[in-house]
Amino acid sequence: METGKVEPAACGPQEQYFSALADGCFRIQRCEGCGQHQFFPRVLCVHCGATALSWIEPAGTGTVYSVSLVRRKPDAGGDYNVALIDLDEGVRLMSRIDEVPLDRLRIGMRVRARVSREGERALVAFAPAEAA
């Protein structure tokens, strides 16, 4: 697990997050005061209000909390999913699950994160843990 101290004067936490993501690294924050993790990046700990936050690379494993199917015509890109994932570190994030047919998505499914590229944009997507 790689860590790095947040440098508040350098740039904001969202910019730091997206910069690391562009370099292929998925990171979340961990409070040095209370030890809790948080996502989406912020300048204060949402649990205790401390400002001493570090960046860590999470294990990347988690569980599907919820999933919604978005239906679109094939010429508009076809159907896709929007999922809420509970990472093992205790944070929840919104993403998508790839590499599995839409009708096989299940709440409680174990998944693994990966950084994916869509053109110039980097994002965190998930795949079933056994397929990752």
CATH uppermost class of the largest domain: Mainly Beta
Q: How many E strands?
A: 9
What is the number of helical segments per DSSP (H or I, 4+ residues)?
1
Alpha carbon gap, first and last residue: 18 Å
Shape: globular
Write down the secondary-structure element order: EHEEEEEEEE
* Regions with little confidence, pLDDT below 50 for 5+ residues: 5-9
Rg over CA atoms, rounded to whole Å, is: 16 Å
CATH architectural name of the largest domain: Beta Barrel
Which sequence of strands runs across the widest sheet?
A: 7-6-5-8-9
Task: Break the fold down into its secondary structure elements and pairings.
Elements: E1 3-5, H1 13-22, E2 28-31, E3 37-38, E4 53-56, E5 61-70, E6 80-87, E7 92-95, E8 110-118, E9 121-128
